[in-house]
């Protein structure tokens, strides 16, 4: 148990000389952002996810079967814009990927602009969101989360994809000593799961109590804080900044 607690602490507060420097806590914060934004999108935008595309593909199947509550064009739009955001993330990696701090700063700053645009849009238009307003919100949010996903993938910090937890949860079980593996890394892997849960729970609580736009406001504030720390990371010359 002690080793799991140490691993969890090092993920939240990396020690000096950590191979990934300050990246883990910033990626954990982005995982919280994912929970917040997906809570808003699913509960306010007609059961559309803007971060977890596996769900959208499944929901699209439900829509084809005429299951109630799903808007097929909104699901397709979310997937398409997510891919565009991920493509932008790939291009950003090509330009800045040799320095992981600069790469993260460029990505998070861009994402901050996109999520802020979604928040301002949600404040200015009438609720519930329909047709063009629904589409605009999906575009801003899915582009931001696609960019985030591609960035986390390129930064390659183990178990910190920021949006997808399936492999993380699988690793806990499949790598455990009970399964004949080398170790579940339970302490390290439960932290991103908890971060996603907290973001989703906070976001859902705000939405169901009639404060949907506040969910995006919290995401914007969190992204602003990450941007400040990422700016400092962008100026670093330490070894962790190199491509892994």
**Quantity of strands, as a count:** 0
Output the number of helix runs. Answer: 9
Which class best fits the helix and strand makeup? mainly alpha
* Helix-strand pattern: HHHHHHHHH
Q: Average the pLDDT over all residues and give the rounded result.
A: 90
The separation of the N and C termini measures: 29 Å
Largest sheet: none
The low-confidence runs, each spanning 5 or more residues with pLDDT under 50, are: none
- Give the helix proportion (percent range): over 70%
Concise account of the structure shown:
This protein has 244 residues and is mainly alpha-helical. Helices cover 72% and strands 0% of the residues.
Characterization of the model:
The protein has 244 residues and is mostly helical. It is built from 9 helices and no strands. Helix 3 packs antiparallel against helix 4, helix 5 packs antiparallel against helix 9 and helix 7 runs antiparallel to helix 8. The longest helix has 25 residues. The chain is globular and about 50 Å long. The two termini are 29 Å apart. The model has no long low-confidence stretch (mean pLDDT 90).
Features:
mainly alpha, 9 helices, 244 residues
Topology of this structure?
Layout: H1 2-12, H2 23-44, H3 53-64, H4 72-96, H5 100-124, H6 131-155, H7 166-174, H8 186-208, H9 212-234
């Amino acid at each position: 148990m002690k080793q799991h607690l140490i691993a969890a602490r090092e993920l939240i507060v990396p020690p000096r000389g950590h191979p990934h420097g300050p990246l883990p806590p910033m990626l954990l914060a982005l995982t919280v952002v994912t929970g917040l934004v997906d809570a808003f999108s699913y509960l306010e935008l007609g059961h559309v996810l803007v971060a977890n595309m596996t769900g959208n593909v499944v929901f699209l199947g439900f829509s084809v079967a005429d299951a109630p509550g799903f808007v097929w064009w909104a699901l397709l739009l979310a997937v398409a814009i997510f891919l565009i955001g991920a493509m932008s993330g790939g291009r950003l990696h090509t330009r800045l990927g040799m320095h992981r701090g600069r790469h993260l700063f460029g990505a998070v700053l861009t994402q901050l602009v996109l999520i802020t645009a979604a928040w301002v849009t949600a404040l200015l238009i009438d609720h519930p969101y329909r047709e063009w307003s629904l589409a605009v919100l999906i575009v801003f949010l899915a582009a931001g989360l696609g960019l985030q996903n591609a960035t986390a993938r390129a930064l390659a910090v183990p178990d910190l994809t920021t949006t997808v937890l399936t492999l993380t949860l699988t690793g806990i079980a499949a790598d455990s000593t009970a399964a004949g593996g080398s170790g579940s890394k339970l302490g390290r892997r439960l932290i991103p799961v908890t971060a996603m849960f907290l973001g989703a729970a906070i976001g859902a609580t705000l939405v169901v109590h009639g404060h949907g736009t506040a969910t995006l406001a919290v995401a914007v504030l969190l992204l602003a804080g990450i941007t400040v720390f990422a700016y400092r990371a962008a100026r670093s010359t330490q070894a962790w900044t190199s491509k892994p």
